[in-house]
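Reopening this one. Same input as before:
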Amino acid sequence: MPNPTDSSHLPAEDEAFEASDDTTSDAVSRQARGIHHRWSSGWLKRPDERSALFGFGRLLTRLFAFLAVASCIAIVAVGAIPLLVSSSDIARWTVRGWVSMKIAPLSALPLLLAGASYIVLQALFRPPPLELLKRLMLGSAFLLWGVTQLMPAGALTAELGNIVIALYVIDLGLIIRTDLRNEVVS
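Same output, byte for byte:
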């Protein structure tokens, strides 16, 4: 029985990592090239690591999404507290806070943050062209809807609102078309 520490039964290094010509196996040549490529394929990063820009994009996406949800909770809480609390002091304080916050509509904040978060996410994951179009339309609809919340009422605001509706309807139509097409294939 051979000794497990005896290297006589192992192929020599020269045999395992011969020049990568067509006579060597693909696996061995890929392994030999991979050792060199692992550390030379990027600036001080391994192939399984993502770039710092990707990490920043992930952080930004998560932050925007968290702030969008938090701002939704704040909007609902500020509007619902006077209705739910019978204490007149809390109700008056909440109404004063709501009136002071109405200067800059809070309803725009979650829309803008959600749209920005979703658009940044698409830059990170780079979906196929049609999927990218659908997702950018959705993110843009949220952004544009948030912008219309910040604008004074008028003809331009109404037209931008119509564009938002068109973006949602077209996006949903493309999603339905894709789902029906995938159902036929399955």
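So the earlier flakiness isn't reproducible anymore. For the record, Confidence is low (pLDDT under 50) at residues 7-24, 35-42.
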